[in-house]
# Entry
Amino acid sequence: MAILCAGRNGQSFGRWGSTVNRIFLELFAFGIDVWILVGAACFILPFAFSELVSSHLRIFDSLLWALVPRDIVWRIVVILSAIGIGAGILTFRSALEVMIIISIVLLLCVVVSIWRAFRIMPNELRLFVSNTAQTSQIRHESNWLWAASLMVVLSAHLSVVIVGLLMTPADAGAYFAAFKISQLLHLPMVAAGVVAVPSIAPLIERGDKSELQDYCRVMAIILAVTSAFGAAAIFSAPQWFLSLLEEEYRIASNALVLLALGFLVSAFCGLSIPLMIAVNGERSFFIYQCMFDGGATVLIFPLVYVWGLEGTSLAILLGKIGWNAAAVVWCRPHLRVDPAVFAVFQTGKTLANRKPLKD
# Structure
């Protein structure tokens, strides 16, 4: 039995090894500078610190300091640099040099944010004095939230990796372009999350379910309308949007429509995820992500062989429909609030009279 297990493990490691070897061979075969991957990996560190300090500033200070250094100043610098490179005004020796420069600029923005965060930090936190039981609870909740967030990122980017492994580089590039264009529909959700979380927290703390329902209904309408306009633009001319990046990317037009439809579904489901996180629903959120996004990632393998890029996008769409619907269903009994856009047909008192489920 031990020999059999060892043999199976050896085969598994062999397959993983051949896959990794294939990836590196393809990178070198297509003339890709591997050092740019190293630069991208180093770029992750200041970006992660900027996300951490931005969250800290949202809690203890104002949205102004949380957004300006990275989301406004740094992004403007990156956009202007890209325009300068495209116009021939700025010249660099390699893509790695560009990556290093934008990473340094981001690091400077992070240093400014950390300085501000340390200045407004409460004394008990600055001296590392905290309640042990409370710290343990916060750490437990943060672990579930971190795991769920990691699952969201993994499922999104693994689809691109799977397409790259199973299809041609041209197909992978077209799918990546379609995915990034469709992500523009996610911007209203990001903005709503930044604005809504500080607003819904006091309502939940007071237990004002009726007002919370009214607030969620207004936000759902805003998200649905803004995302619907963007989706309508993409649905009307998907090939044109893809051709802005590369003419050959037109082959991913159907995939772009399916991916955009997934983000539209998320917008129609409203603030379900912020609501779950606000009432300690991180564990359920993680379970939903594993079930639906994880299942969608596995589903890509058979569907990509049957329908190609459309099959990959269909798997992602089904995953988004699944976990968004599950989140909305979770909010209804636990919070007695319907965050979806269909709540526009209800008053704030309709769901507020429901009895919550026992956890």
